[in-house]
Recover the amino acids of this structure.
């Protein structure tokens, strides 16, 4: 977005902030989920809003002038500018957000929406995991969708997927050291687990090879109902049910969403029953931030740009484009358009 357009928008946001009117908060919960899925799952909403409120409250004079706003935005750190952009997007997606007088309420409901979506996703993956096939094979022994008691190191396949790639799984001594003697520790976030790699095996000499390309990361359960979450199925638009991809605004795979899924899969494979982003047995915040750092670091860009592109094409296993019903030849909308075109009407004249 051009700087002049951005600064003009912030002048309007400032004036709305000054007006102190109330707004309808029905979209807060959904946008909290959007923040976690698409933007940054580890970003506290309080941190985002405090930066914006600081700008509003401490720069009241300059925010009345568009040129001064441009100077203020240009002089901000990259981190602050990212937060400003997130807030602008939230204002676009939540009508009346900038007019609120109760930022504490906004913060709590956005955070609750983010946390609720995470809880829902973790539950969905726990239910779906026993039905997945890895390399075409059933879980042996079978997993129980009702409990996680048989996950983690107690399950040979879960243990293999959670093990660092430095553990040679075909070597019984190394396998036992990991499962029985906790060497290396399963809680060490600096060792990325095998489930993140294509074929569930990594190369110590080439750590980027196959990284974040495993089939288990294709957790479309997070985006689609069970009826077509399987990778061979496609969304059925004869149903009026909206997918999570539609609700959350997930139109393509981003680094943030890929990191989000890696965290969700790691938790699902583990024995942990309660997810804690920070302060738990495993440091999921560090794990998430390290993946984000890898995906966004310029030094890795040639690899990571190609990786994200792969996930967003037919080579990837994740997103299936949400089809426009008008593009389905047998849909009512498509047939109406065909008849309108036959009568010489333009698409925009159907209602005329």
């Amino acid at each position: 977005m051009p700087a002049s357009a951005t600064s003009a928008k912030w002048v309007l946001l400032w004036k709305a902030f000054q007006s102190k009117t109330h707004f309808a908060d029905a979209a807060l919960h959904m946008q909290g989920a959007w923040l976690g899925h698409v933007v940054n799952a580890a970003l506290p909403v309080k941190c985002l809003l405090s930066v914006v409120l600081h700008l509003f409250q401490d720069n009241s004079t300059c925010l009345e002038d568009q040129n001064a706003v441009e100077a203020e935005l240009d002089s901000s750190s990259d981190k602050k500018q990212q937060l400003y952009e997130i807030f602008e997007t939230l204002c676009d997606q939540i009508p009346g957000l900038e007019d609120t007088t109760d930022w504490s309420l906004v913060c709590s409901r956005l955070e609750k929406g983010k946390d609720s979506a995470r809880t829902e996703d973790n539950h969905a993956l726990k239910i779906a995991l026993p039905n997945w096939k890895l390399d075409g094979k059933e879980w042996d022994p079978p997993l129980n969708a009702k409990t996680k008691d048989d996950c983690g190191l107690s399950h040979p396949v879960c243990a293999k997927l959670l093990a660092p790639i430095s553990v040679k799984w075909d070597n019984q001594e190394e396998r036992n050291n990991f499962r029985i003697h906790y060497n290396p520790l399963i809680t060490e976030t600096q060792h990325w687990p095998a489930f993140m790699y294509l074929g569930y095996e990594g190369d110590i000499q080439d750590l980027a090879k196959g990284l974040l390309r495993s089939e288990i990361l294709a957790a479309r359960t997070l985006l689609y109902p069970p009826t077509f979450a399987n990778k061979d199925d496609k969304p059925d638009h004869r149903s009026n049910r909206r997918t999570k991809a539609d609700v959350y605004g997930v139109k393509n795979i981003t680094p943030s969403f890929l990191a989000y899924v890696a965290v969700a899969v790691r938790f699902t494979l583990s024995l942990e029953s309660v997810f804690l982003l920070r302060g738990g047995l495993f440091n999921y915040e560090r794990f998430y931030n390290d993946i984000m750092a890898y995906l966004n670091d310029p030094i890795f860009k040639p690899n990571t740009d190609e990786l994200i592109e792969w996930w967003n094409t037919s080579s990837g296993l994740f997103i299936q484009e949400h089809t426009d019903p008008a593009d389905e030849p047998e849909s009512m909308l498509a047939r109406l358009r065909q008849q309108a075109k036959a009568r010489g009407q333009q698409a925009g004249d159907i209602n005329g």
